[in-house]
Amino acid sequence: MSEGLSPALLGGLSGLLGDGGVITGDRASAYERGYRYGAGRALAVLRPASIEATAAAVRFAARHGLRLVPQGANTGLVGASTPSPGGDQLVLSLERLRRIETLNVADRTATVQAGVRLSALNGAAAASGLWLPIDLGADPTIGGMVGTNTGGTRQLRYGGMRRRVLGLEALLADGTLVSDMRGLRKDNSGVDLKQLFVGTGGSLGIVTRAIVELAPVLRRTATALVAPTDITAIPALLQALEGRVGPLLTAFEGLSREALAAALKHNPGLASPFAPDILPPYVVLVELGATEADRDVEEVLVGLLAELSDGPAPLVADARVGAPERIWDLRHAISDSLRREGHVIAFDVSVIRSRLPAFRAVVVEELARAFPMLRVCDFGHWGDGGLHLNLVWPAPQADLEDTERRVRERVYAVVEAHGGSFSAEHGLGPVNLNVYRRYTPAPNRQLSACIKALLDPHSRLGAVDFA
Ligand SMILES: Cc1cc2nc3c(=O)[nH]c(=O)nc-3n(C[C@H](O)[C@H](O)[C@H](O)COP(=O)(O)OP(=O)(O)OC[C@H]3O[C@@H](n4cnc5c(N)ncnc54)[C@H](O)[C@@H]3O)c2cc1C
User: Fold this and answer.
1) 367 falls within a domain
2) 3-state per-residue secondary structure call for 221-268
């Protein structure tokens, strides 16, 4: 029996949710710890098997003043999908709502329940030559993707989750179901209520179903690691590629030498396309993708890179076209490899994309001056101005917590000075709430908190109240 929840409440919930619907004790631990951040204690974990049962559980929680934190695949990176350490929240796992209700090929849409995994949807849509074109190194649920407005490596071409949501159904804290499941691409008939639930991490409502817009699958892709003539040339390289091939450009990811070196060191099965031991200081993963099976995008890419290496002001110093999956494996191996190098202080920041080189130069210089032990091992979605500014602290140190706090203060101050965001794509949660309070203008916070108070007056949903 869980601590803190009376036998009567536990019995009431079990009666509503049936077999496997309520988990307590040791079996709850997988739901209490996030992929990387967030560890708490749940009053109990609720796993409703239908939308009706989810609504009944939410109404039960409201009646009894119980707090809920929605959870999908629990791959979020800001600690917002796990219960608080105080043990005063129920985890509401949507993992059993995994029905793909319809796949509408003519409209290029899918109607899915919140717990459907991205891989399951893409597996089902592949037979119709379609996919949900949001690409990342995790396998989240649709509800979690709505909650965090997932971006990923192909946001440059396809946009993030916000752009993909054509219909949504969500439960408010009191159990009221708000629904717009018409799936319209055009509708300017009032406040677009769907948007309230995108990127707000389950703090305004619990997504139960969504209609998402799919895209034709890419039948041909070509991928290269490109060393620019200088890091400051990267925005011009992006502009040149966009100018010449437009929507054929599907990814533009920056990778520092330190990040690449860590991926290579800890993954002996991966190989550098560059000469052994000579990694350029910074490279860009460039991908072209075409929906036509007979479009030779590799020929286009090779020609483009040759053109951009030439002339009086070349932008490309070196470039290697390679097997796409091998290059993507390198990219996706970085995060976990860095954790094997030492203590990682991770940032998910953004500035307007043309400002990235200047922002990075300032931050690298400031950190080198103040914290010479830190290794900057950044990588990220340069095409969207996003940077995973991951810093590795190699040696154990007693006052690491205090050092980390000072490092964070300094980095966020530079982000602010460059007009950037402290959370480019991972959202808001206990991990970065203090930064939100510091850097979000008071009127913006007040309005957000008013919306929260209107929809959830007793602050029972999710991990943040936006105050
Ligand atoms: C290796 C790795 C790589 C990643 N790469 C990227 C990346 O490139 N781009 C990117 O944007 N993110 C990335 N992420 C972060 C993460 O995968 C995304 O944020 C993802 O969308 C979270 O989905 P989830 O189902 O795991 O949600 P969870 O982690 O379970 O929850 C995330 C948030 O959404 C809320 N939530 C969950 N379900 C619902 C629901 N049904 N209704 C309302 N709210 C809900 C939770 O309360 C929480 O606030 C990565 C994570 C990992 C581990």
Assistant:
1) no
2) EEEEEEEECCHHHHHHHHHHHHHHHHHHEEEEEEEEHHHHHHHHHHCC
pLDDT for position 399: 82
Give the number of other CB atoms < 10 A from CB of residue 64. 13
Predicted pLDDT at 276: 67
3: confidence class by pLDDT, cuts 50, 70, 90: low
The residue nearest atom 16 of ligand 1, judged by CA position, is 76
Task: Tell me which of 93, 108, 123 is where a domain ends.
Answer: 93
Instruction: State the Cα–Cα distance between residues 234 and 310, nearest whole angstrom.
Output: 16
237 and 316, same domain (yes or no): yes
CA of 284 to the centre of ligand 1 (A): 25
327 with 225, same domain: the answer is yes
Residues 6 or more apart whose Cβ sits within 8 Å of residue 178:
169, 170, 171, 172, 193, 205
Closest Cα to atom 50 of ligand 1: 138
Task: List, for residues 110-136, the tens digit of each pLDDT value.
Answer: 999 999 999 999 999 999 999 999 999
Q: How far is the CA of 317 from the centre of ligand 1 (A)?
A: 37
Do 205 and 178 touch, CB atoms closer than 8 A? yes
User: How does pLDDT run across 132-168, given as a tens digit for each residue?
Assistant: 999 999 999 999 999 999 999 999 999 999 999 999 9
Indicate which residue's Cα is closest to atom 3 of ligand 1. Answer: 137
Distance 34 CA to ligand 1 centre (A): 10
Residues listed for the chain? 467
Pocket of ligand 1 (CB under 6 A): 35, 69-77, 80-81, 94, 114, 136-138, 140-141, 143-145, 147-148, 150-152, 201-202, 206-207, 335, 425-426, 462-463
The total number of structural domains that make up the chain: 3
Q: With a cut of 60, say whether residue 1 has pLDDT above it.
A: no
Domain with residue 13: its CATH number is: 3.30.43.10
Residue 297, domain extent = 218-333
Shared-domain flag, residues 119 and 189: yes
pLDDT of residue 277 exceeding 90 = no
Residues 2-8, mean pLDDT to the nearest whole number: 79
Domain boundary among 333, 363, 392: 333
pTM of the model: 0.96
